[in-house]
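Inputs:
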Amino acid sequence: MSSTGARLLGARLPTHPLAWWIWALGLAAAASRTTNPLLLVLIVAAAAFVVAARRRPTTWARGFRAYLIFGLVVVAIRTVFHIVLGGGYGETVLVWLPEIALPEWSAGIRIGGAVTAEGLASAVYDGMRLATLLVSVGAAVTLADPRRLLKSLPGALYEAGLVVVVAVSMAPALIESTVRVRRARQLRGTSTRGLRAFRSIAMPVLDQALGRAVALAAAMDARGYGRVGSLTAGARRTSAVLLLGGLLGLCLAAYGLLDAATPGSVAVPALVVGVAASVTGLVIGSRRMVRSRYRPDRFDLRSALVALCGLVVAALFFLTELSGPAVSHPSTFPLVWPQLALLPLIGIAIAASPGVLSTQVEAFGTFSGESAVNTPAEVTFSGESAVKSGRVSAR
Amino acid sequence: MISFENASVRYSGAGSDALTGVDLVVPPGEFCLVVGPTGSGKTTLLGAATGHVPHFTGGLLRGRVLVGGRDTRTHPPRELADVVGMVGQRPMDGFVTDSVEDELAFVMESLALEPAVMRRRVEETLDLLGLADVRRKSLAELSSGQQQRVAIGAALTAHPQVLVLDEPTSALDPGAAEDVLAALHRLVHDLGVTVLLSEHRLERVVQYADSVLSLTAPGEPVRYGPPGEVLAESRVAPPVVALGKLAGWSPLPVSVRDARRLAPALLQRLGDAAPPVRECSAGPPPAGDPVLSAHGLWQRYRNGPAVLRGVDLDVRAGEVLAIMGRNGAGKTTLLSALQGGLKPERGTVTLDGDPVHTVSARARRRLVSLVPQEPGDLLYLDTVDAECAQADTESGAAPGSTLALLARLIPGVLAELDPRDLSEGQRLSLVLAIQLAGGPRVVLLDEPTRGLDYAAKDRLTEILTDLARAGTAVALSSHDVEFVAATADRVAVLSDGEVIADAPTVEVVLSSPTYAPQVAKILAPGAWLTVHHVERALGAGQPLPSDAADLLSSPEVLR
């Protein structure tokens, strides 16, 4: 990016993790609106481009390749299932598999038989759509450290969020301990395959994982995690009910909006009620949390642009779908070569633009020294704790 | 600052107290060292001071423990977070975030300090502990010494009046341990923090301590007082104290510096008595031919930088070889490659001329066996008996031979016990017995002394020496200079993947202040390495003072 552009966009703050998630979910929403394999591949390419340009070298960031591989596995599984169990519609028979005769009550299910190009294409398209959704989420996890995202969560969700993040981050330790124990089995000269070996490896690994979990819980306890604030039991309960109810409403709304068959008259009210209930629940619940935040991320212009890119991509794909199925859902019966159109291609270009728009995601705060000191920090504690911090800082 | 008022702890389901009638007050600004053999209740005592016992561990606390005036009965650990900070043995297990700065800020966020205060304290702590260079790094990238300092910093940013540390240097090399202890020393001096610290390797810490709290066994009374007085009667004592007792020095010195002033008289008494021949560099190496040899060995970690860069090393029959070096110098990788678990990237590791990694795992078990850093990795069955029987099958030994071997290593371990309930020393012996079952020609041990008390280490020295005398080649990696001085015939020092020294023990340890044992430092320029050497020389020469002779008749006192 040119220096003029950089000046225009202000100081080079790291892109907010929330922005990355909005961008990635935009990509996922776009992918859910199409089965066009060309568009899906382009979405994955856009995501991969941005990740390659912007990731940082930490544990979280190494996972993107794993998501790509996982995506391929999903496509493969979908295809294999289709070949073995799929209905053989279509005319272009590629290969005949021996068919297994099933009893009459299983009408509609078939094992083996004709494998047609049409059926295969439809299965592959479907698998690719799922894989693209996965890769989009993978890109978000890679680019936005979940632990940093945690800092932006409302106070009421902080404790639950931390538990989830810590649980997920146990995975590398678990892998390391599995590798060590496998090596130990080899030292004893026993096999590392088979059921017996599985038990002999799983036992010590589990044992160590539990030990680590207890140690971590003790450490968190000693460092003040879960200190109680001043909220009555009734308010706590109200907050929980509102939050859960609100999330349920949001789920319904998301389903309604993403599933073309559900009428908008259900989705929109559900969305409004869901958002209202969640926000109220969060506000009440957050009063309980007596916490402050150390150098929270700022949602600056750049972050807003990244998030906007995601939203625009989703919107363009929605529009493409509304304008007719030719581009969004290429026909597999008869099988035709998928087409491209200008609208979704613009969308792809926008999806890839955070690769140059955003700032390099560096490890842990890329603030240049000066701007770091001036970062206005966000404070989320109530009066009581302000007194407390006053006391401590006076010490 | 910390007061125990007749405090006793009994864990649920236990028949007896883990801690009995502790009644003492640790005044503010004191560096108090907690000593005692394995299983004497050190961890329980430390836990009681942070409120983890009984809030987190369960069990029954009788009496009262006050920390900074707050009663631990009514304040769970999280409500004590601003008064007492806790640091454990393995810092990585206790990290909540994954960056240095966030980790330092975590406790302050919980305490809801103002952002400006947090910012200032993080900067202060980074400077205080020398972590400013690594502030933006991920915690996993740090060296173990840096990780331990981050863990201390993470407790410190709450400005606690008390810091409780459970064996904070047990995994560190001598240099990194010095750094951590020096940082603690500064905290005590500059900030007046009260420190309660437990440690097995007393030689590392005792010179920093203002007082010592000594535990003997569960249910027995604790002793608390100035280091010299308490250690004089303690079952565990660092070499400097043991030497002082042997020489009859009074008051007993606890630091090398104090002891050195008293040393000339002892050196005179030792006179011309030569240090034991085995350790003397002048003599020919006692060992036989090389059994296992590495030539130009290169090894890299996954696709990272090279860990070993052209290592040449022989492991000889009838000799104990110690491999020393910083954390991350490549010791563990070298042992794995020697065992044949890793295929050399360049160079060779040969066993009697054949590349060792080509031998099948099953056959290799009977030739070269390795005791890994976490002995527990090798164990997976429910009883000691079952593990031993399994080892017999694996190594093709006669049924019962592993159990018999174990009984020789440590008498009195019950065969029905769950291996997880054994102490560190017992577990190590069990794993050693399992790995020795096949009668291997080479035994490799990775960091075997971690978590062992003096008695267990002495026992291990005896076991390894006996093995070597019986013609087995033994190689071990260790950070423990005292253990190496007492056990090894030859020392190889690894640095950055290269062997920078490979010579008889006495030559290597005497030429480096980092690797020199306390006795060598005290009796320099004499080539004495351990209290036992001095003891033998004195025993052969003049009669000993009466109280020292008493001590010698009951050898465990010395340990």
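Chain A has 16 helices and two strands. Flag for discussion at group meeting.
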